Amino acid sequence: MATHPNVSSLAAAGGAALYVDTENLRDLEHARQVVAAVTANWPGERPPLGSVSLYVRADKAELWRMWAEDALPGMSIRVRGVQHFSANNSKNSADMAIAADAVSDLVTGRANDVAVVSNDSDFGALFVKVRELAHEANAETVPFLWIHPPEGGALSPEIDEFIPAAFRWDLSAGLSAPSASAPAPVVSQPAAKPLPDATRPALAAGNANNNAGNEAMAEELIRHLPLGRFRAADAQEIISRRWPKHPAAGDTAKFGQFLGKEIWPILQKRGVTMPRKSSPRTYEITGAAKESIARGSSPRPAPTPTTPVQPVAEPTTAELAASVAAGITDDVFKASEAQAALKREQPQHPAASYTAAQFGVWFAKQLWPVMEQHGVTIAKEKPRLYEMTPDARHQLISSA
After folding, report:
1. Which of 84, 166, 233, 246 pairs as cysteine with 90 (C-beta 3.0–4.6 A)?
2. Lowest mean pLDDT among 45-59, 275-289, 366-380
3. What whole-number distance in Å separates Cα of residue 65 and Cα of residue 198?
4. Which residue, among 382, 358, 39, 322, has the nearest Cα to 175 in the 3D structure?
5. 113 has which bridge partners?
6. Distance from first CA to last CA of the chain, Å, rounded?
7. What CATH number has the domain spanning 205-295?
8. pLDDT given at position 254
9. What is the DSSP string of 269-299?
């Protein structure tokens, strides 16, 4: 049988497959940001992502194919054009095509994990079918991930009510603008598959206070929560996915008490802080906490009073803009080139390690207003390109 013209070498065996209905997303740029955020932050606990299927307007199919093959090197790409006869029919056609392709890929072995980007409850039927197939095959878990994009339509209450949290990934954090008090967070990662009983820490009801288990929980939170602030609900999501049988996993009030009494003292020793102590409490993952995981121990002890510590001043926004201006060699540049310049000039700054989508949001909010004041202009809207004249570059560098 001849290969479908819209298929370019799907994974021969296994691997995860991503299915994206672009029509459910705000616009073309938003859709590309979502795809980039998912592929750049694909969780290591799941099978490697091997293929991406895009469901787009039929008249845009070739344009999407060119973008995907350039933006997602090494990935098998499938683009299906959806004919628009009426709004409702085209929507249903895309949904049915995604469901048919996902089940077919799973049954034939071209994929062993299904991930759908949508807020549409219609895919609940797909989850049920994948769950049935997994049970028939005696699989340890259901190979399904429901990715909820921001501004992808209202999240159906049926999803919230019936689909277990372990099979959902809220992408909102990865595409939202960073707050003035904290850097943009890393996209939330879906939890790992539950550990086999033989290796799972003793976290059953009778062992909730087990020190080794609490240490493991604290490390899990520091490892998977992004730098910056988080709430008890964020921590509960991670714990409930990794240890779903823990007595505090499914009870919000009980988990808040458990976090404050059992886990917080360990987190505090590791370098986590509590910027807000009144209700609702707010915690913060610091660089020192992340280092403690990398070293496998608590943060280094503070120096004695006889060893004065020289504080390192954080670069101002003007200094960051100047660093970008100094590091960019071309007059016309894009956000990714600004990030590359920042990595060279300010490698320790958190934005240097953001994903492309996160950096674009941070750049637009933090650096662009300063650069615009000094003469940098927008050369092209889509894809967005900026223009920096020699005079603008000189003004930015001089102002810092």
Report:
1. 84
2. 275-289
3. 46
4. 358
5. 16
6. 64
7. 1.10.10
8. 82
9. HTT-EEEE-SSSPEEEE-HHHHHHHHHTSPP
d(Cα 52, Cα 36) in Å, to the nearest integer? 11
Rounded to 5 degrees, φ, ψ at 273 are: -115, 170
Contact yes or no for 23/91 (Cβ under 8 A): yes
How many CB atoms within 10 Å of residue 273? 14
Q: How far apart are CA 386 and CA 370, in angstroms?
A: 13
Q: Per-residue pLDDT tens for 318-359?
A: 889 888 888 887 889 988 899 988 888 888 888 888 888 888
Whether the link from the prior residue into 265 is cis, omega within 30° of 0, is: no
pTM confidence score: 0.44
Q: How distant, in Å, are the alpha carbons of 183, 299, 315 from that of 351?
A: 8, 23, 12
So where are the chain's domains?
Answer: 7-175, 205-295, 317-399
Q: Tokens 């600004």 belong to which residue? A: 338
Question: Does the domain formed by 7-175 have CATH 3.40.50.720?
Answer: no
More confident residue, 225 or 24: 225
In this structure, are strands 49-57 and 76-82 parallel, antiparallel, or unpaired? parallel
Q: Which bin fits 74, alpha (ψ -120 to 50), beta or left (φ > 0)? A: left
Residue 218 CB burial class (10 angstroms; 0-12, 13-18, ≥19): buried
pLDDT band of 360, cuts 50, 70, 90:
confident
Tokens for 115, please give them: 């991930």
Edge-to-edge strand order for the sheet containing 385-387? 332-333, 385-387, 377-380
Q: What is the pLDDT of residues 62-110, one digit of tens each?
A: 999 999 998 888 889 999 988 755 444 445 678 889 999 999 998 988 8
